[in-house]
Structures are given as C-alpha cells and as structure tokens.
C-alpha cells in the first residue's frame, strides 16, 4: 500500500489495543505487550505477518479526514479480512464509541450501499442497517 500524505500512524496505536491477535496471543481491549508508550511497535521488524498486512481504513481511504483517526474517534474502521463485512471496532471499555454521530453516519452510508456493517467491542457486536437501525447480535 502506498502511504497517503498526512496519514501516518504517528502516536496512534489504537489497533494495538482493540484487535485480537491470535499469533501472540493478544486479546481485544488489552494493549499489546510490544506496543511502545509513545506509539509504535517494539518488535516492528519481526512483528507477525498479520500485523505487517494490517492497515485501518483511515490510512487507506483518502475520504476519511483526520477526524476519523482511530485514537481520536475511539473507533477503528476496517474491512473484515475474512468476509465482505465492514467493521467498526471499539475498545471494550467504551463499547458504544461507534454511536458517535460522525462514525454512525459513515456506517449507515455503507449499509445503504449494500454492505454488511458490524460494530464490535470485545465479544459484543451489533449489525447496523441502512435505515439507521441497529441490533445487537447474540
């Protein structure tokens, strides 16, 4: 992936906290033990392939402004690598960050485009619908 000017991770390490990484193992909502206090990865050059391959949508989508940077909005926006779903992943300590009006409008727009849109926080998840409704999944 080519870097988009102005869209570097910098001090953001939100993905290092909210994502579950089976290769370590690292649980969702727990900061990765390899994450440095000022951001960045302590094992960057030997990090697992799953970490090498990962980019959040904020970094990949020119249409998502600085307001959408995960550590600023409390939600990580991403394509699910195992399906055609779109995910908004939140810190389990703040499971409703996806309800921020800015994020919620984005998610509903994607649902209107026919996408399956899911909000996730730890083991909890919600489906977001094109009419602006949502339902917690069992």
TrEMBL record:
Protein name as catalogued: Zinc/iron-chelating domain-containing protein
Which PANTHER family does this chain map to?
A: UPF0153 PROTEIN YEIW
